[in-house]
Design brief:
By secondary structure, the chain is an all-alpha fold. Helices cover about 80% and strands about 0% of the residues. The termini are far apart. About 10% of the residues are buried.
């Protein structure tokens, strides 16, 4: 085989792999959007950054591997790579990795609930213990209990904001329940 044909074959293969990489990167964004709540502004910003990065990668492919010459078969190769990845691996990757991350987040939420109760009881016990120490002890106990309660609430709020409430609809495969097991409202 001539070196010119071999070089063109490598160029086509690298354009197909670029298409697979582009689709994989966008699937990572799709997984993040299913797991963590995203507003319209963040989605737009992520897409803008994604497309700037993708155009930079395509420019590098043409500039370094083809001396800046535009070839349609490279675009068709990238489109073929994107299509193959999207039809074969992508549906399973997005679905099951999202489910896995949501399951891990559910474990984290349950762990927080498990350890949150003892923290609350610890605050109550500290308040009772310090109450026997006089006025300064009571004041210390109230401050300690308040800080523990605030820390617990902030952890719950951050988990709700990041993983559950207000997330983009995840499709039929997650049913009508949100990350936290409550019924999702269909307005957002």
């Amino acid at each position: 085989m001539s070196p010119y044909i071999r070089e063109e074959g490598w160029f086509l293969l690298s354009s197909i792999l670029l298409g697979v990489g582009i689709t994989f990167l966008y699937d990572c964004l799709r997984i993040c959007r299913r797991v963590v709540a995203h507003g319209t502004l963040w989605i737009s910003l992520e897409d803008l950054i994604y497309w700037i990065f993708v155009s930079f990668c395509i420019f590098n492919l043409f500039y370094y591997q083809n001396d800046g010459a535009f070839r349609w078969f490279a675009i068709l190769g990238a489109a073929l790579g994107m299509l193959l990845f999207r039809r074969t691996v992508s549906p399973f990757l997005v679905k099951y990795v999202s489910l896995l991350l949501l399951w891990i987040g559910g474990l984290a939420r349950r762990g927080l609930a498990f350890f949150g109760g003892p923290l609350r009881r610890l605050g109550n016990r500290a308040e009772k213990t310090a109450a026997g120490m006089g006025r300064k002890g009571k004041q210390f106990a109230r401050i300690l209990k308040k800080r523990l309660t605030v820390a617990q609430r902030m952890a719950k709020i951050s988990l709700n904001n990041r993983l559950g409430k207000g997330t983009v609809r995840r499709g039929k495969w997650l049913g009508e329940r949100s990350f936290f097991g409550r019924k999702r409202n269909r307005t957002g």
